[in-house]
Amino acid sequence: MNKKRESTMLGLEITAYAGEARSYILEALDEAKNKKFDNTLNLLKSAEDLIIKAHRAQSDMLFAEANENYSDVTFTMVHGQDHLMTTILLKELALNIIELWKQEK
What we know:
The chain has helices at residues 3-33, 40-66, 75-103. The protein is mainly alpha-helical.
């Protein structure tokens, strides 16, 4: 597989994992907003597992680059990085928001 295609495929992988994680986080926020805290930790754990998978794909590229095996940067890869970064930020904010909502009980 050529480097550009490999970069595109990793970008799609990161986007898919981060996108699914984002969905779990938003579902956890929605449940917490409605004072249904029973499943929020499970949803956030599922999101974290997917974020870890996305981060591993990202790390593979970082290690390859550290070994001077450079890949072509594609728009898909940039898009995947954007999804991962915003999903990680969303998770951190969600944890704090959910804790605040729990204190309001």
